[in-house]
Design brief:
By secondary structure, the chain is α/β, with parallel strands linked by helices. It has four helices and seven strands. It is globular, with a radius of gyration of 15 Å. The chain starts with 8 loop residues before the first strand and ends in a 9-residue tail after the last helix.
Length: about 170
């Protein structure tokens, strides 16, 4: 029986990023696409730029607090400064049980009203939502400069079927 989280992607986009500034800008553009209840899964090796992307996203959403890697707190909530959603930034690296453990974190926020960004969430948080945006950050192959990245956005579920991912590659 096919597991439900293997549905076909609704949309895919690859973007080349050449600097941390561009990565932050990409996060700010992504923020314009996101809505409350969206789940964004970030995948990439250490130092790939996940936190830089999320920091830009937080700036774009207009949330309070500096976005830093939540490795030691597992999850950090950035409340909105204005009308927008809160940003819940989760590091699932040390979450064994996935969703149940996420609920145990007792986040002082309603997940359906927040934008949730999860680092290292593969295989752990898929059941949170059938609609999710996977963001994979790869270092450019054989690259000579350290800042070149290929960022692949894959939208899953109805939520992303008509989303304008192309607006990310401004």
């Amino acid at each position: 029986m096919e597991a439900p989280h293997h549905q076909a992607p609704a949309a895919t986009l690859k973007i080349d990023v050449n600097s941390p500034e561009q990565m932050g800008e990409l996060g700010r553009r992504l923020a314009k696409l996101l809505r409350p209840g969206d789940l964004v899964m970030l995948t990439g090796e250490l130092g790939a730029g996940k936190t830089t992307l999320t920091r830009g996203l937080g700036e774009g959403l207009g949330v309070r607090g500096a976005v830093t890697s939540p490795t030691f707190v597992i999850a950090r909530v950035h409340p909105p400064l204005g009308e927008g959603p809160a940003l819940v930034h989760v590091d699932a690296y040390r979450l064994g049980g996935g969703l149940d453990e996420m609920e145990d974190l007792d986040l002082d926020v309603s997940l359906p009203e927040s934008v949730i960004v999860v680092e290292w969430g593969d295989g752990k948080v898929e059941e949170l939502s059938e609609d999710r945006l996977h963001v994979v950050i790869d270092r450019a192959v054989g690259d000579t400069t350290d800042d070149e990245r290929e960022v692949t956005f894959t939208g899953l579920g109805e939520r992303w079927a008509d989303a304008d991912l192309a607006s990310l590659s401004a």
